[in-house]
Amino acid sequence: MDPRGRQVSVERWGVYELALDGPAAGNPYRDVPLRAEFQHRNRVVPVDGFYDGAGCYRIRFMPDAEGEWRYVTRSTASQLDGRRGTFTCTPPAPGNHGPVRVAGPRTFAYADGTRYLPLGTTCYHWNHLDDLDREEETLRVLADAPFTKVRMCLLPTGGMDPPRLAFAGDSPETLDTTRFNPAFWRHFERRLRDLLALGIEADVILFHPYDEGRWCLDRMSPEEDRFLLRYAMARLAAYRHVWWSLSNEYDFNTHKTVADWDDLGRFVQRHDPYQRLRSIHNGTRMYTYERIYDFGRRWITHQSIQHWDARLTARWRDACPKPVVIDEIGYEGTAERRWGNLTGRTLLRQLWHAAVEGGYVTHGEAYPDAGRDGTTWISRGGRLHGESVPRIAFLRRVLEEAPADLVAARREGTYRLEFTGAAQPAYRDVELPDGGDYRIELIDTWNMTAAELPDGPHRGRVRVELKGRTDMALRIRRVA
Amino acid sequence: MDPRGRQVSVERWGVYELALDGPAAGNPYRDVPLRAEFQHRNRVVPVDGFYDGAGCYRIRFMPDAEGEWRYVTRSTASQLDGRRGTFTCTPPAPGNHGPVRVAGPRTFAYADGTRYLPLGTTCYHWNHLDDLDREEETLRVLADAPFTKVRMCLLPTGGMDPPRLAFAGDSPETLDTTRFNPAFWRHFERRLRDLLALGIEADVILFHPYDEGRWCLDRMSPEEDRFLLRYAMARLAAYRHVWWSLSNEYDFNTHKTVADWDDLGRFVQRHDPYQRLRSIHNGTRMYTYERIYDFGRRWITHQSIQHWDARLTARWRDACPKPVVIDEIGYEGTAERRWGNLTGRTLLRQLWHAAVEGGYVTHGEAYPDAGRDGTTWISRGGRLHGESVPRIAFLRRVLEEAPADLVAARREGTYRLEFTGAAQPAYRDVELPDGGDYRIELIDTWNMTAAELPDGPHRGRVRVELKGRTDMALRIRRVA
């Protein structure tokens, strides 16, 4: 901090924040534009500021290059205009690898090149609660869990009575879509920072169709949608671990068309200074994979799919050269609804089916928490009860030890994962690529064991006895 | 028999057969046309005859009405032309319900109105063997099994060396597509009659793509195809339990187009006097259900689908008003190939998923028979080793006790089957239609038990405790 209380340095990919006093009268959210231009050498990055209530304005910025940065503010309010300053961007602290980017047609990586595996989980409204103990518990559970991403909503469902809303007002009658509630956002950001500290990406779901006509946030005008998106980006985009999921189950929203979603997606693409990852997630169109969404659209960075069958991964992968993340495939649990009663084995199997084809499946759990109010992990976070989680941790270790692009490695003949799923073959005849020596391990994905086949290394055709066991994987590595 | 050895009577839907001596020189299969017109009252049915070798010609006919029939033969060979006779069609014997027909958009029935449930199995070449003991064993196994249909091929695969071929010749070099081998057909017919005696329909697969360029029967000219089809119909169509499956996995055959298959399907439609059931079965096009085949074509009587996921049944059912029969979904077994290593539980689950939506799944088994040559039920018949068969018998009893059209019954609110599949819900809340009293039974599809819920009959909303068990069905019947 400098003598005026301003930050004088920030690590690379950290958040530089500038607070300014400005007008509090009228509706500053709507009526007082504020932005800043951040400059590093000859590159200028324009960034929106935001009104944080009580006469306080803020500008948040994530510098992506080390060295000196300078900035100047722009506003129609004279108090906020032409403010200048400098700060130093220092090397990232250990554990800070920068934002996640798409690194290839099937892979993600952090900005520093470190590989990123999107093994997500789903806690739609874990941080919209009045129950801070449960929010803290969710964080403790996540700290011990294998997940590297959380899907979480910005807006409440029709059935919720949250303590705070993104917009001003505390009831459907008093909700005001021309103003925001800074207290909501400050709490949301606190939880984002908690996730960041855990090394977990936040896949923020901007809209969803579960409003039930109560808050009517699923049927706002395009202007209202953009007003919300711009505020959300001004506040949240500087956090390097934020992703944008335009909508959950977009096609359940009868108030918007695909053209509307494309408009909103392009709006985010235009205004996000950092080009965070962007996608959109379908509800119904699962029978016809071609129409889940046209993931080829330029504003979309990766395929965020809902489908019940991860065996289609290769199809989606080959249809569009963007990473496949099946963000919903059904949840482990005992819920009555069809989406929430997979066995742990079935869910784990889906993760493996996707993984061997270079795709990823997001976890979710719907065991009503008997010790609590009967709500579930996917809805409110809390404790995990399922059988899949430790096995997902095992899968994560297997994938961390594997090449980042399994499909490319298979084509090159250097490495291969195969998976039997629900099948119970007596054996599998493995055809090893010509001219190579290979080690073969038999992995029991459920019991989390790996055993190398004797008499290796192997060449040519090898019969691997599976003895009719399900959920077995083969790990095949070239050694020469 | 009359004094000249001719049949004087035949039961309704039985086979009337006329044998005639005729020319044996040259190539009578190709060069001697023979047909007959069978007349009942003022209705005339034209029927092709066929050459059966050694100067013997035959005409087979299935009368569909009781009373006196007369016939007259037509041929360019004077010996075979203008032969006349009469016979009496008597009432069908017990157990003879006539041919199976499509009875509605989701149902089949025998000609006498008796319901038919297509619970098929697959034994592609069980009756092409030199091993008559094994053929007889297959028949004994089928007699005790719950199956009502067998899918079986007319033509050999490239890997087979069958003792007899449909065409003349006994090797690829000597095979002659202008002549047939009556010994092959007589054996094939013997086995058809054995199935008929067991009350099992024969879904005869006319072409398949497994020739591997050896016999080249998958790449004959349209004229050769039609020559074969016409002979097959002349010999086999009179058997009331024969169905025509134009091809297995038609799209694996690169020598024929969909237009070719449509031409052949229409050819069968035009020449089959009895309009036996006709369909065609796909190999690859499983990702895009719209393109499996256009089952709306007029020559197709029912949808014969290959797909791995019976949960799509409602989709196919609603896309085309013809019964859905998933004739291939993978086989129970421990084969290495992906199509042959389902667990019994997985296969059974698929049958239930289809059944509750008004569709049917054909069984198959690929446990290499260790006591034999290592071949499997789907390939050569023999013994059954799997766990699904007794449970399919249980499903059959459930379906026999249910309305023929489960979908219509559900819409009417009189009867409903629900199935949980691989899900493990703690409970299911059943919404009973207004104003009715219902009995609810909980069926364990794997353990083959059914238990009525206490305190019935029920009304309104009923919570059924499932306790997280998979593969449970609910049977809900209106009692008032």
UniProtKB/TrEMBL annotation, chains A, B:
Q: Where is the DUF5605 domain?
A: 406-477
Query: Where does the record place the DUF5060 domain?
Result: 10-75
Which GO biological-process labels does this protein carry? carbohydrate metabolic process
Q: Where's the Apiosidase-like catalytic domain?
A: 106-359
Annotated Pfam families? Apiosidase, DUF5060, DUF5605
- PANTHER family for this protein: DUF4038 DOMAIN-CONTAINING PROTEIN, LMO1036 PROTEIN
Protein name stated in the entry: DUF5060 domain-containing protein
* Organism annotation: Streptomyces coryli
